[in-house]
Every structure is written in C-alpha cells, then in structure tokens.
Amino acid sequence: MGSTGESTTSVPLQYFAQQQQTFQPPLIANENAFLGDVVSSEKNNSSSPAPAGFYRLEKGTPLVYEYTYDEMKIILEGHFDISDETGQKVRATKGDVFYFPKGAKITFTTDDYGLAFYTGQRKQGAA
Questions:
Q1: Could you tell me if 16 and 39 are in contact, meaning their C-beta atoms sit under 8 angstroms apart?
Q2: Which of 1-10, 38-47, 83-92, 114-123 has the lowest mean pLDDT?
C-alpha cells in the first residue's frame, strides 16, 4: 500500500553484469570515438528520458562535441584532456566527475585512451 492507501505495483530493478569489461560501444565519430547507451529510462519516463552508457576515446583525432542536453560523466579508466570554449582545461583521470550543461562545446583528446560512464537527459541513441 502507498502512503495514500492505494496499492502499488512492484517494479523490478535492471542488472547489467560486468558491463565495464564486456560492453563494446559503437564508433560514433572519427576513427577513435566510441559511445553506446547500455540502458535508458525512456520506456518508463518518455517526457524526461535519461540514458546511461560508456564513452571511450582512443589516441587520434580530437572529438569536438556541442551538448544539446545536460550530461554527467565519471572517468573509469585512462585519461582525457577536456577543454571548453571558455578556455578551461582539465586532465581528467579515474574518479573525476564532470557535468556538461546543454550548450557547452567540449573538446576531448587523449594520448592513449580514456573510458567514462555517462548519463544524460536525452532520448536513447540521440547523442
């Protein structure tokens, strides 16, 4: 029973075992930028969906991306050199968390590779 006395329906969690080790995000740009949604809340919340997945960048062409939605990333492995149009530059390493607001134009580079987990407010597959 809910707090108003109405009955509630149980909703199961979703579990994605070992995704950091096994999920291979598809190539999205250049020869070295990979991104893939693992899951999205779109099915249960179509008005404000929030997909989550992995972004991997390998040594090569910088990725310049202008966000049309809000997104957060946590760096899992390797590193990224991240800069924005205001001149801010960060060497991102494991454990760092970033918030990229809608409208931010971000440049990602790496001299090896970087892997990040993200969640954003957009439709699934719309990055």
A1: yes
A2: 1-10
CATH code of 85's domain: 2.60.120.10
* 96 vs 6, residue with greater confidence: 96
Q: How many domains, the chain?
A: 1
Is 18 within a domain?
Answer: no
- d(C-alpha 67, C-alpha 80), whole Å: 17
**C-beta of residue 79 within 8 angstroms of C-beta of residue 91:** yes
**Domain range for 70:** 24-120
